[in-house]
Amino acid sequence: MIAKLTGLVDRKGEGWAIIDVSGVGYLVFCSSRTLSYMEIGGTMSLVVETHVREDHIHLYGFFEQTECDWFKLLTTVQGVGAKVALGILSAIANDELYQAIVAADKETITRAPGVGPKLAVRLLTELKDKIATLSRGSEKFLDSSNLSLMHKNRVASSTISEAVSALVNLGYSGSYSLAAVNSASEKLDDNIELEALIRAALVELAPAAKDYK
Q: What domains are there in the chain, each with its CATH number?
């Protein structure tokens, strides 16, 4: 089982690259994000996920472990194969994907090729409780407004998600709802209740309600 490759970038194309390791060329499928780090003739080290099937062995390469972890998590969702998972990772950055799931932001998810409204809902539903396993690996990609929240672990991710969902149901956008919940949680005590968090987030939204909706 191949878990890592380090060699020269021999060739690359849309969704793939050939890595020359001591004269042996390995065809590796990658997201456009990982491919953007590659230069023909340059040295590249990739984290590799190997898929063994009856009719083929495919290698999927990632610039960093976090992207590989996202790939493995995405492919646990029914209807999301390797190609769709790479498409999602190509279209949506790690931090944005994390926040989209927390905020139940279907519009962001459907930006990825091959992801329609139904699959987007399935992704958001099935990954909602699974992304906690990626929180540590994703911390370095979070913006400053969310980073302190993750470091302190002041509110469980499930509580954040529920609070954001409640605000979205009230008509606020996913991104503004997430920002309001994060801001509200910073001003409240640890182990706060869901209802208190929602009320505090509504206070955050009140001064500019027209802009948030």
A: 4-63 (2.40.50.140), 77-137 (1.10.150.20), 143-208 (no CATH)
